[in-house]
Amino acid sequence: MERFLPLFTAVPLLAGFACLLLKRAAPRAAPALSVASMATLLLLASAAAIRGEEGVAFAGGWGVRSSGEGSFVAGIALVLDGLSRLFLLLVAVVGTASAVFALRYLAPEEGLPLFHVLFNLLVAGMNGALLAGDLFNLYVFLEVASLASVGLVAWRTGGAEVEAALKYLVLGTLSSAAILLGITVLYAATGFLNMADLSVAVSGGAVPRVPLLLAAGLFVAGFGMKTAAMPFHAWLPDAHPSAPAPISAMLSGLLIKTLGIYALLRVLPVVTGMDGDLRAVLTALGLLSMWGGVLLAQAQDDLKRILAYHSVSQMGYVLVAVACGTWLGVAAGIFHAVNHGLFKSALFLSSGSLERVAGTRRLSGMGGLFRRAPATSAGLLGACLSISGVPPFNGFWSKLLILVALLSAGQPAMAGLAAGAALMTLVTFVKVQRKALFGPLPARLEGAREVPASMFLPVLALVLLF
Q: Which residues, at least 6 apart from 42, have a Cβ–Cβ distance to it below 8 Å?
């Protein structure tokens, strides 16, 4: 499997390049290229998951002369293990659903080639970050994905979209600066960037504790902003509503996990071993996110802003679980992160369909849509039940596992707070269902119709997975 690892970044890069080349000659080929690219990644990720293989590939191997004596070999170490396999599969599943959804969601005159160039670049950056075996290339791929996502947020170039993209760019630059500074501190203290070498150096006890703590603090701030954890969340509530629905699904379903949660899980154990001080910081961030996000969502009328604030809240669960410092807590956090990737992607895609049906994102302008768009409504209903933690959906099982992990770690108060936030989530999505899907149908929506099958089928497929 090792020889196929470069394909996880090469396939979307080639698809994006092809979209650019065909911009004038065949602009309508871009959507099909993206679907083909995502389908190929889905096959690769499924094969990796089924075979259960682990391995390391070295892309490059270029000899570089140094200014001193000798030379060194430059390249990119790509590492495949159980965690990266899981997230690669998540990226492929959500990416495929989003690409298929975009076929009829986006109008041909909306600049399809450029959209799909950025879309494939975003996927290439995320896959590269998932496979990177060293901090430098993790940072490079992280920046590729971040810049592509900024372009996609501003893609429709309206005033609100550009403002949201600028805010995202500024805060993203600050987070990237913190991450780069953390990498610099770590390299100065150890002389290594490869994560396997770093782990050996740090575990040996020869590295001073002060630079390690400084690097860990910078990583928490930098990756915390990518995760949209409070108080680093300010970019997310504007970016999600401004982006097209398939991109909102990618941002919330994938980006905040691959560039945030996954990176934290990779880097922090190497740097500090998840010591008590670090766990306390993650617990505080998680608790603030869990409750701050769910409370702010209560006051919103815009469906996509409600979903955006609940992305903040759900990432709080993941942080609190990981901060337990136990294998059960980490497993519960990863389980919930994957579940969130599926049901939140379904929610954002459904919000795009409902906006198409009702002509608005505001719940106050909806009502009775189950009668006009039953397939879209069924997808939204299933995703709402999962995020609310209603059995038998996976959202229930991952939240239950988080509560069990907290109780087994001797944190009953934290478990109670997590259960309370879950109850508030249920309240929010009961309101969403009642206002959007049921009740009286506004007179202006008497002629509303179901969206095309290519828009509701990806959502229903995601619902079947959770």
A: 89, 92, 93, 95, 96
Dump pLDDT digits (tens) for 366-409: 888 898 889 999 999 999 999 999 999 999 999 999 999 999 99
| pLDDT range class, residue 66, cuts 50, 70, 90 | very low
- Res 108 pLDDT > 90: no
Residue 85 near residue 122 (C-beta atoms within 8 A):
no
d(CA 311, CA 233): 10
Q: Is 284 inside any structural domain? A: no
Look at residue 200 and tell me if it is in a domain. Answer: yes
Q: What percent of the chain has pLDDT over 70?
A: 94
Specify whether 125 is located in the same domain as 33.
Answer: yes
Complete DSSP assignment for 400-436:
HHHHHHHHHTT-HHHHHHHHHHHHHHHHHHHHHHHHH
Question: What is the rounded radius of gyration, in angstroms, for the C-alpha atoms of the chain?
Answer: 22
Contact 367, 435 (CB under 8 A): yes
In a domain, 280, yes or no: no
Q: Indicate whether 152 and 218 sit together in one domain.
A: yes
127 shares a domain with 7: yes
Range of the domain at 316: 289-466
Q: What is the distance between the alpha carbons of residues 456 and 466, in angstroms, rounded to a whole number? A: 16
In a domain, 67, yes or no: no
Same domain, residue pair 43 and 123? yes
